[in-house]
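User: For my dataset I need records formatted as: sequence, then structure tokens, nothing else. Please produce one.
Assistant:
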Amino acid sequence: MSHYTEIQTEFRDLECLLQALADIGITNVQTHEEPQQLRGYHNDLRQDKAHVIVPQSEVNAKLSGGASNDLGFVKKDGSYQAIVSDYDRNRWWDKKQGQLKQSYNLRKIKKEARRSGKTLSESKLEDGTIKLTLAV
């Protein structure tokens, strides 16, 4: 049985978090007003609870390719903290979290630019870097 670990993150905007999850291929996401228990890879209920849950079936199909646990995000002090089992953290989370953070940050910047009436252009450089230009 894997132990879950809470990971410090800077996901403060639920809409951008959900969009970022979709950007990395996660389309089956459950959101809850009250945190719900996460499930382990044997479909067993864990003590850990989350407001945003990516079910293990989605994790298996889109991220890990095998036996995994639910991925959760619990709202705490204004941000959504990732809750990842130690097994999944070592297996795939450490690789995917960078993509998720990059997508989240890009979504958040775009949202804030729209909100403030600014124009944002985006281009991808040869090395994979994304260049953003904000026009006032």
